């Protein structure tokens, strides 16, 4: 079997679980945070550095890889694994979120989506079948069904229409996908309407042979709103496959999601805020470009053993960021991803000890003590 999911432990205190997900390129221990390599690279970091900070699986974006360098070039290189020299599992999103965020330069029909490249203005038309062809060429271990992701605040009528279209496209993706070495994850939608969410989830589960994704959350809504949706979805979630919540990457969102039955998460957040001079630490966010760190010769995080924390000070990192030196973004990216992979280890340990809710309170108490 190319894919196998096993539940290792269920936390008595919260119901959160530890699992092992076997893929063609290795075993993923869940719950897991997945760094995002939008254009077939996690910005500024090498595969070796990603392994060093504990990344088990990374993402690449279908939309961006399709536009540049093109899926056929990547196919010729041996797929993303060969192209980017990453030996562990890879997940590609469908590109649907990026396409739908283009707004004025895209048109949605039941057949697919017509859009113009944000790079060149060239016109493209992506159907569910063509999307599967592209992702098959990219060669990721896990691929996502082509879906319609509606923005936060979309009205009921349009949200319901998007749910129906997503389900129709899912069936077409399922029938078009033929590569047994790739796991196709369907995506449940429904915006923030309980009946639409539950209906979408129930009708999506029959397609969830190897895993299930929840889309359209962490799109600007407050944390309590996301938790509300996960709470009413949880009794309906499948227990025999991993559940992936798309776009979650801050410590509080990660912890609350795991407590509510989520196994996999991803986000560009750790590298994006790194490029803006912000680090996530055990004591809260540190905006190192701020003047108060000019003569601060302590590490970013006294509890972290990443390369940046072991070798450099806040003062030096502040200098790099303010001087617009690439090394600053690299070091903060190393730290931020290491912080989240270490957080997942702490979460797993708390699950094993049946004390995840206690860990949550302890973590928040320290994390909210801003430094």
Kindly describe this structure.
- By secondary structure, the protein is α/β, with parallel strands linked by helices.
- The chain is built from 15 helices and 17 strands.
- A nine-stranded parallel sheet has the order 11-10-6-5-4-15-14-13-12. A three-stranded antiparallel sheet has the order 1-2-3.
- Helix 6 crosses helix 7, helix 7 (156-176) runs parallel beside helix 8 and helix 11 packs antiparallel against helix 14.
- The longest helix has 27 residues, at 326-352.
- It is globular.
Strand content: 15-25%
Mean pLDDT: 95
The first-to-last residue Cα distance is 49 Å
Main β sheet profile: 9 strands, parallel
Structural class: alpha/beta
Helical residue percent band: 40-55%
Major sheet: arrangement of strands: 11-10-6-5-4-15-14-13-12
The backbone outline, from C-alpha atoms, is: globular
Number of strands: 17
- Contiguous helical run count: 15
| Global Rg | 20 Å
* Low-confidence runs of at least 5 consecutive residues: none
């Amino acid at each position: 079997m190319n894919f196998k999911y096993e539940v290792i432990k269920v936390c008595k205190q919260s119901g959160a679980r530890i699992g092992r997900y076997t893929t063609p390129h290795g075993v993923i221990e869940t719950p897991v945070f997945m760094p995002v390599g939008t254009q077939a690279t996690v910005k500024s970091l090498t595969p070796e550095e990603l392994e060093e900070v504990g990344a088990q699986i990374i993402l690449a974006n279908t939309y961006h890889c399709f536009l540049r360098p093109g899926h056929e070039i990547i196919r010729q290189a041996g797929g993303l694994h060969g192209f980017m020299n990453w030996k562990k599992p890879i997940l590609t999103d469908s590109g649907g979120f990026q396409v739908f965020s283009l707004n004025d330069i895209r048109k949605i029909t039941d057949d697919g989506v017509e859009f113009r490249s944000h790079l060149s203005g060239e016109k493209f038309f992506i159907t569910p079948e063509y999307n599967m062809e592209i992702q098959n060429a990219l060669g990721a271990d896990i691929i996502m069904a082509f879906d319609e992701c509606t923005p936060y605040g979309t009205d009921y009528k349009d949200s319901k229409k998007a749910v129906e279209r997503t389900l129709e496209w899912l069936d077409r993706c399922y029938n078009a996908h033929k590569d047994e070495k790739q796991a196709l994850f369907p995506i449940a939608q429904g915006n923030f309407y309980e009946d639409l969410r539950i209906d979408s989830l129930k009708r999506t589960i029959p397609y969830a042979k190897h895993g299930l994704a929840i889309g359209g959350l962490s799109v600007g809504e407050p944390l309590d709103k996301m938790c509300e949706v996960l709470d009413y979805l949880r009794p309906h979630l499948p227990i025999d496959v991993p559940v992936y919540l798309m776009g979650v990457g801050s410590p509080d969102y990660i912890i609350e999601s795991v407590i509510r039955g989520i196994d996999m998460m991803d986000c560009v957040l750790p590298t994006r805020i790194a490029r803006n001079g912000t680090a996530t630490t055990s004591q809260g966010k540190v905006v190192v470009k701020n003047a108060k760190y000019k003569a601060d010769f302590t590490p970013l995080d006294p509890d972290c053993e990443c390369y940046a924390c072991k070798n450099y000070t806040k003062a030096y990192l502040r200098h790099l960021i303010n001087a617009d030196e690439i090394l600053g973004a690299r070091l903060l990216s190393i730290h931020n991803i290491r912080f989240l992979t270490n957080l997942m280890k702490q979460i797993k340990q708390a699950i094993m000890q049946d004390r995840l809710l206690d860990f949550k309170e302890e973590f928040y108490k320290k994390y909210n003590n801003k430094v």
